[in-house]
Design brief:
Mean pLDDT: 84
Helix content: 25-40%
Number of domains: 5
Radius of gyration: 28 Å
Structural class: alpha+beta
Number of strands: 24
Number of helices: 18
Strand content: 15-25%
Length: 640
């Protein structure tokens, strides 16, 4: 039976599954227990029977969550639209003390957890707040400290819901909610699509629901498996700034988000193969971490989920969407193994009609045989970087192969280790640090233990002259000053120190004396982070060139700190040109009780400023989104 014969009306879909399931069990399994066979056929038939209805409904607590965020950090939805006017009808709610206290308490609670927590909680406002401890434990809040914090956050949520005008906003938006439900009911994933999802994955849920939100900012969305029911739940903000929920992206989004419910546990069953192939994460690690996939397991899961985005539209006869999803995920999102996984999965699942779990296992075995690096290719170099005159260690030296994502930095004690298995004998390993002469060594000449001594270099910067003549002085800011709600980073941070940099171009038509650099972090749950600030002039091709500093500039952040600021008066820098400023994570102190998240924030405005990213020391610079993105970063300077 070809895949396309599974399409059609719900009734034909039901009959097809019945016949197909009977064929599989009789011809392949050759089971002798007739009663058990019949029961299995009946159970299999339920796959199609549960896929006909997706419930669309609003959740008052989710709307309260969106309203709280809107009052504390206004969205970029079009302000002149009726929905936006109604949401912002009571600007006095922004001044309620509980709102400020809530943001302070919840500054390290990521939005996905907050949304899920609001979804499960009894409806606000509550006369006497009730927080089920078993709920907190199911959501991963196991310690008394974490539970007490969540209790405090929810108390402020309850207080705000009582003191604010949210009840009126909720009432006023009733007609818009009704219209949105009607729109989504008309555009929600079809029963045919859901049947194909269940048929392809060979699994089903009793309930599917989409929870839209008018108060949440555009582009936001979360999905989770309901911890209390056999249900998949998806919370969706508007797909555009005009409160549109009918974008062309909606179908692929549905396949993707519902797909996680079917894929995650199946892929995780193959833990041994995933562990054995974990070295392949290196080739995509920087890109995956920026997208929130901080380990190889989550990366593999995403490959199989996105394979569903490619295969299911093809099954349904939409080859254009299938190919578009494939190319977008490979070229724009760096899912470099996707094409191979799609091909193998189609062979095992569609051609050979194997169960999805078996198809995944076979695909992963083939994947391992094709892509896993051979042990004899591994070539690790390790050693110490020291000052040539004093033999003192030099920390945080950039070490790498020019133009390749194979870099690292030396540790605080000057030690380093780098895998050069993906290089050629003619490549050179470069050591570079401000205040020292650059050193380069041909890789064919290196030994497994290789210590390096760097010569100090005196750098003469442009002299800053301040005259005694009375001048009119004012302080101005240059760069991306205002944070947006968009953010990028990673949870579960375990590794750092690859020398990667992220920054923007600061344009100016004025001369100014540089006083301070500031950048913004949306989430910061590690104990502390040591950043290095880099300031470059710009070469002819628009890329960072020479450093304008004569020494390393570091700034250390604390847990929960959002604005990271570094005073620079002592550097005596007079800026009369465009510059590029980047930040670099060089050391992290982890927190055993947190999710160890570091997320930088997108900046608003300043469209003429370029964006810059390099994934590791000596790597080539990337200057286009979505890889590089405009972080919230600006400088303050005195203009004469």
């Amino acid at each position: 039976m070809s895949p396309k014969t599974l399409l059609g009306s719900p009734e034909s879909r039901f009959r097809s599954i019945l016949v197909h399931t009977f064929y599989l069990f009789v011809e392949k399994a050759k089971m002798k227990n007739t009663l058990f066979l019949i029961l299995l056929v009946i159970i299999s038939c339920r796959l199609g029977a549960n896929a006909q209805d997706i419930e669309i409904h609003f959740n008052k607590n989710i709307e309260l969550f969106g309203y709280i965020i809107e009052m504390g950090d206004p969205s970029e939805n079009y302000p002149s639209l009726p929905i936006s006017i109604e949401i912002n009808r009571f600007p006095e709610d922004r001044k309620i003390p509980a709102l400020k206290e809530l943001f302070e308490l919840g500054e390290n609670l990521d939005y996905s957890t907050a949304v899920e927590l609001m979804y499960y909680m009894p409806e606000f406002p509550q006369q006497k707040l009730s927080v089920p401890i078993d709920l907190l434990q199911k959501m991963g809040f196991q310690t008394e400290e974490d539970q007490a914090l969540i209790q405090s956050i929810l108390e402020k949520v309850n207080q705000f819901s009582i003191e604010s005008n949210f009840e009126q906003v909720w009432s006023i938006l009733a007609k818009h909610r009704n219209q949105t439900v009607e729109i989504l009911n008309a555009h929600k994933p079809s029963s045919e699509l859901m049947s194909e999802l269940e048929g392809f994955y060979g699994q089903s849920y009793q309930h599917y629901e989409i929870v839209p939100s008018l108060t949440i900012w555009s582009g936001a969305g979360w999905g989770f498996k309901n911890i209390n029911e056999n249900k998949s739940t998806f919370v969706l903000g508007p797909l555009d700034n005009n409160y549109d929920f009918t974008s062309d992206r909606f179908t692929s989004l549905s396949i993707h988000e519902f797909g996680h419910s079917f894929v995650n546990h199946i892929v995780e069953e193959n833990g041994q193969i995933i562990t054995e192939t974990s070295g392949l994460f290196r080739d995509v690690e920087a890109s995956m971490r920026r997208q929130g996939y901080s380990n190889w397991t989550s990366c593999v899961i995403e490959h199989f989920v996105r394979a569903g985005e490619v295969i299911i539209p093809e099954i349904m006869g939409d080859s254009a969407t299938s190919q578009s999803n494939l190319q977008n995920n490979i070229n724009e999102r760096d899912f470099i193994y996707l094409e191979y996984i799609v091909a193998r999965l189609k062979e095992y699942r569609l051609d050979k009609k194997l169960p999805y779990s078996v198809a995944v296992k076979n695909t992963l075995k083939d994947f391992q045989n094709k892509f896993q690096p051979k042990e004899d290719k591994v070539s690790t170099i390790k050693g110490f970087v020291r000052m040539s005159d004093s033999n003192e260690p030099i920390p945080f030296v950039h070490i790498g192969v020019q133009g390749k994502n194979l870099g690292t930095i030396s540790r605080p004690d000057g030690s380093y280790e780098i895998d050069l298995s993906q290089t050629s004998a003619q490549d050179s390993l470069v050591f570079s640090s401000i205040g020292f002469k650059r050193a380069s060594f041909v890789i064919s000449e290196l030994t497994e233990s290789f210590d390096v001594s760097l010569l100090q270099e005196v750098k003469i910067l442009k002299e800053v002259v301040v005259t005694g003549k009375k001048q009119r002085i004012k302080t101005e800011k240059f760069g991306r000053i205002k944070p947006s709600k968009m953010t990028r980073g990673q949870n579960g941070l375990l590794e750092f120190g690859f020398g990667g940099e992220q920054g923007i171009r600061i344009n100016t038509s004025q001369t100014y004396y540089l006083e301070e650099v500031s950048f913004h972090m949306r989430f910061n749950t590690v104990d502390s982070v040591l950043f290095r600030i880099n300031i470059y002039d710009i070469c002819e091709d628009g890329l960072p060139s020479n450093s304008l500093l004569n020494r390393n500039i570091f700034v250390k952040s604390k847990k929960g700190q959002k604005w990271i600021r570094k005073r620079l008066e002592d550097e005596r820098l007079m800026i009369d040109q465009d510059i590029i400023i980047t930040y670099e994570v060089v050391q992290v102190w982890f927190n055993e009780k947190s999710n160890n998240a570091i997320f930088l924030t997108y900046g608003k405005g300043y469209p003429e400023g370029g964006v810059y990213l390099r994934r590791s020391s000596m790597d080539k610079w990337i200057t286009e989104e979505p890889d590089a993105f405009p972080i919230t970063l600006y400088v303050s300077g005195k203009v004469y």
